[in-house]
Design goal:
By secondary structure, this protein is α+β, with helices and mostly antiparallel strands. Helices cover about 35% and strands about 15% of the residues. The structure holds adenosine-5'-triphosphate and magnesium ion.
Length: about 350
């Protein structure tokens, strides 16, 4: 006997407008479908919250409020939110449909990305975050699953603000929604439980680390052990795990993931970071492990080659100073950039 229970949402028309055509994927909090908006005759993605959340009476209300604020966010690198509603008590969100795949899927297939490709994803990711931060919104769940890579080469960030409602939901208070995302969690979220834009910067730094090395920096038997490392461990430089990572990208990761939120790059610096050079910069070639950059050293030092002492004189674990000719090229970031444009990932 076939025990498969058909998904009652398949074929359903939500609020007399969105005809659910097929399932895209199930996430921890919701299932995402592609659907036809019969009024505008276009394909949309519909995210329907799992029934576990329907038991929380305030959830649908908070979900609607959050959806309205996300809908105000209009940016080419943010997945647009068109509408929200509820169907048989299940809250749903109607979004722009992004054909393609997630950064997670790409990393699963490819392992890691070339530095130019990583920058090609990082730039739009930072732009999307900056647009949200400017209107006072924090993503809170920046991770490769929420970075969508469209078949036309556009990078789009999904799920702004949704983690906040999930975390505050009774349905997650016992299960802990953070479990799925702990690899990217900023130390202050672990210790104090608060998240401001700088927590997104931290998570973006971890995503960059993972793009460059194929693994997040911390792994452990339990989510708690991973969270502990975010708070207490020293962030490794990507080049310690993967040969050929330009030291500017090491700096970027280490700066974005500083334990102290105030030490992470401010928005102005992050804008430059999205255009950080990839090829054209000499990868670290001394074979030594790189440690944290000097406390308080600004991100701009990565471009100036300033986070280091003289070759041979610097303490172990510090960055090697580039050669003079190299410094020239880095210092004049423009000429390096001209040769090292961020490259769109090939799907
Ligand atoms: N707007 C969209 N267009 C196309 N596919 C999408 C869209 N939004 C989400 N998806 C797909 O649906 C999947 C599930 O998304 P969902 O946000 O529910 O879970 P997740 O981000 O993978 O993990 P989590 O449950 O922790 O949020 C995504 O991984 C992606 O493949
Ligand atoms: Mg998601």
């Amino acid at each position: 006997m076939n025990k498969t229970v058909a998904d009652p949402l398949l074929g359903a028309v939500l609020e007399e407008r969105y005809r659910v055509r097929g399932m895209i994927a199930r996430g921890g909090m919701a299932t995402v479908y592609h659907a036809l908006d019969e009024r505008l005759e276009r394909t949309v993605a519909v995210k329907v919250i799992h029934p576990a959340y329907a038991t929380d009476p305030s959830f649908v209300e908070r979900f609607g409020r959050e959806a309205r604020s996300i809908a105000r966010l209009s940016h080419p690198n943010v997945v647009a939110v068109y509408d929200q509603g509820s169907h048989n008590g299940l809250a749903f969100l109607v979004m722009e449909y992004v054909p393609g795949r997630t950064l997670r899927q790409l990393l699963t297939e490819r392992g890691k990305l070339a530095p130019e490709e990583a920058i090609g994803v990082l730039g739009p990711l930072l732009s999307a975050l900056a647009a949200a931060h400017r209107v006072g919104m924090v993503h809170r769940d920046v991770k490769p699953e929420n970075v969508l890579l469209s078949t036309d080469g556009t990078v789009k960030v999904a799920d702004f603000g949704l983690a906040r409602i999930a975390e505050s939901s009774r349905a997650t208070s016992t299960k802990g929604v953070m479990f799925g995302t702990v690899a990217y969690v900023a130390p202050e979220i672990v210790t104090v439980g608060t998240a401001d834009p700088r927590a997104d910067v931290y998570a973006a730094g971890i995503v960059l680390f993972e793009m460059l090395t194929g693994q997040p920096p911390y792994r452990g038997e339990t989510p708690v052990s991973v969270a502990y490392q975010h708070v207490h461990a020293e962030m490794p430089a990507p080049s310690e795990r993967t040969k050929g990572v330009p030291y500017a990208l090491d700096d970027l990761v280490l700066h974005a993931t500083r334990r102290e939120p105030g030490a992470r790059p401010p928005e102005r610096r992050r804008r430059d970071a999205g255009r950080a050079p990839g090829r054209g910069q000499r990868p670290r070639d001394d074979g030594r492990a790189a440690g944290h950059r000097a406390a308080g050293a600004p991100l701009g030092d990565a471009h100036r080659g300033g986070a280091a002492g003289q070759p041979g004189l610097q303490p172990a674990g510090r960055h090697q100073r580039p050669r003079k000719s190299e410094r020239h090229r880095i210092c004049r970031g423009r000429c390096v950039r001209a040769r090292a444009r961020p490259r769109a990932v090939q799907l």
